[in-house]
Amino acid sequence: MIAATSAARRHALRLSRTIDQRISSQFLHRTFASRASLSSHVIVDGNGQAEKWTSSTFAAVALAASVVACGAFGRKRSIVRLEASNGGCTCDKSDKEGDAIDDGDGSTTILNWSGTHSVQLAPGTYYEPETVSELISLVSHAYQNGIHIRPVGSALSPNGLAFDPRGMVGLSNLDKIIEINKEDMTVTVQAGARVSQVIEALRPHGLTLPNLASIAEQQIGGFVSVGAHGTGATIPPCDEFVTALTLVTPSEHGVVKMTEKTHGNLFRLARLGLGGLGILSEVTLKVVPAHRLVEQTIVLTRDEAKKQLNTLLKRHKHIRYMWIPYEDAVVVVTNDDENDLPLLGPGTEVNDGRGGTKKIVTEADIQAKYSRDEQLEPLRNLLRTLLKNDPDVSIDEDTLNGMGFGDLRDLILALGNMLDPDHIKRCNKAERDFWVKAQGLRVLPSDQLLQFDCGGQQWVYEVCFPVGTYGIPSSGSIDFMDELLREIESSGIPAPSPIEQRWTSSSKSPLSPASVGFHDIETYDTTHALFSWVGIIMYLPSEDKDPTGYRREFITQAFKDRYCRLVRKLGQKYGIMCHWAKLEIDDGDEDRDIAANVRSRLGPNVISKFNAARDKYDPKRVLSCSTIDKVFDRKQ
Ligand SMILES: Cc1cc2nc3c(=O)[nH]c(=O)nc-3n(C[C@H](O)[C@H](O)[C@H](O)COP(=O)(O)OP(=O)(O)OC[C@H]3O[C@@H](n4cnc5c(N)ncnc54)[C@H](O)[C@@H]3O)c2cc1C
C-alpha cells in the first residue's frame, strides 16, 4: 500500500516540479486571487498535444497551480492553495488558453484532484480525439489491434478510476451542447461537456439539471459512469437522469445508440458502466425548470439530529448532515424550492391568497446574525495560537483576515500533527464554533447551493447502504453513525470534520451502490427505496509542509489501515457498498476481500450480466483497468 502511494507521490512531485518551471507567476497570482476553479485534470505532454487543449485546460492548469503551490514558493507563501469553489466554476474562453506544459520526454502524466493517484502514459498512448469520427476510428483501430483505450473525463475521481497506464482517451474536446429540448425536458450533450458547462447552457432557457454532486467540473461521461449523487430522499443518483446515450464500442457492434426502451438492462448497465462497456460520446439527460433554493444551515446536538432525521428527510427536498467527530454537534443543511417551502420549514408564514398560508423568505429572514468576520473568529483565533508555536511560519494579519473557511481549516490542520487526536479535536471544536455562528438562510439558484466547499486535498472513502423506504426509513442511518462515532471516539481515530451523510432514492442502474438489484421487469418502481451515503475523510498536508512526503504517507496508512477498515467492519451488517469513484483496491490480501465484498454486494446475477455486456461490447478488454479487473474478472 505504501509502495503504491510512494509511486504516486513520485509522479506528483515530478509533475509539480515540471509545472513549477513552466507556469507563470502571473497565472498563479490570477488563479489564487480568483479562487475560481475547482482543480481537476493535469496533462503534462511532451508530444505536441498542448495545442489541442481546449475545454479542460483551465481546470487542468488550475490543478497544476494547486500542486505547484506546494513547492513553488518559499515556505511561508506555499500555504496558500486552491480549493473546490463554493459557487461553481465559470471558465471563460480566455481562461481556457492555458499554458503548455512539457515534461520533455514525450510522456503524459495525469494526476487526480487530490494528488492521491497519478498515471504516466508512454508517448503515443494518450489520445484526445477532436471529433466524434476521430473517436470512432480510434476505438475501431483499438479493437482491431487490441490497443488499450480507457476513457477519462475530468480525472476527478478520488481513486483515479479512469487511470490505466496501458492507454487512455481524453474526451475534453468533445464537449458540445447538441440539443436542448424543452418539450421533452432533456438536454443532449457530447460526453466531454462538463456539468458546469451544461448548467450554463441551460440557464438562458430557464432550465437546469435536477441535482448535482458537490462540484460541477466532472465531464458528463464521468459523472454518470460512476453514478455520482447529490442528496435528497426522493431524488435518485445522477445516472438516473440519463434517458439516452451513444456508446462507441470496441466491438463488432461499433456505435450503439441506447434508450431504456430499445435496450432495457443493457442501457442501464451502460449509463453507469465505469467506462467498461464503451466510450460514451453523447448523453441525453433530464432537465427541470431553473429554480432558486432556500438553504438553511442549523447546528443540532447529536440527540436532536437523531430524533429529527426522519421528519427532516421527509420535509426537505435536499438534506445533508455533517457530523463533527468529538463534538456534540451536527451541522444540518437543507435546501428547498423557494416557491415550495415546507410550512414547518424556514421563512415567514404569509397568506397564500387562497385562504391558506405559505412560507416565503423575507429580507429579515436572511439577515445573518453574525458578520463573516465574527463567524471566522474561532478559526482565526486557533490559527493565531498555532502560529505562535511555529517560528517557521508567519502570516500577517491582513493575509490571515483574507483567508476563507477552507484555507483556514487547511492551514490549521497542517500546522499540527494531523494524526494527533488532540490536534484534530481542537480543529473540530473551532469548526463547530464557526458553524454555530454561520447558521442561517441563503437564497440562490439551485446550481450554486447544491455545490459546496469540499475542503483541501484529502483521502476520501464513501459508502452507501439501504435504509428502508421514504415512507418508513429504517434506523440504519443513525445506528451506523452511532457505531462509527463511538468507535472513532473510543479508539482515538484522528477523524477530521465533517463526516458527511447524505441520502438518495435508488437507481435502476444495476452497478449503482443505490441499486436494489437487477430488475428485468421494466415496471420496477424505484421511487420509494431510500439509501444513505456516508463519507469519511482525512486531509493531506501541502508539499511545503511535507517535503519528504512522509506525512502524507503516514496519513494515507492511517486512513486506509484504521479508518476505512473500521467503516468496512462496521458497515458489513448494514450492507455497505463503496462509491465507485472512492473504491480503493490495492494488491494485498485484504484488498482481495474488498473486491470480493463488492462482488457479493452486487450479487452473481449483476456480475455475470455486466461481464456478458463486456464480452459483447469490449471482448478484448481494451477499456478495462485494474479496479474493474479485480472486481469483475472471472478468474478473481
Ligand atoms: C472535490 C470533489 C467532490 C466530489 N463530490 C462528489 C459528490 O458530491 N458526489 C459524488 O457522487 N461524487 C463526488 N465526487 C466524485 C466525482 O463526482 C466523480 O469521481 C466524478 O463524477 C468523475 O467525473 P470525471 O469527469 O472526473 O470522471 P473521471 O474521474 O475521469 O472518470 C470516472 C469514470 O468514468 C469513466 N468515464 C469518463 N468519461 C467517460 C466516457 N465518456 N465514456 C465512458 N466512461 C467514461 C472513466 O473511465 C472512469 O471509470 C467528488 C470528487 C471531488 C474531487
Automatic annotation (TrEMBL):
Keywords: Oxidoreductase. Residues 119-290 form the FAD-binding PCMH-type domain. InterPro entries: ALO_C (IPR007173), FAD-bd_PCMH (IPR016166), FAD-bd_PCMH-like_sf (IPR036318), FAD-bd_PCMH_sub1 (IPR016167), FAD-bd_PCMH_sub2 (IPR016169), FAD_lactone_oxidase-like (IPR010031), Oxid_FAD_bind_N (IPR006094). Pfam families: ALO, FAD_binding_4. GO terms for molecular function: oxidoreductase activity. This is FAD-binding PCMH-type domain-containing protein.
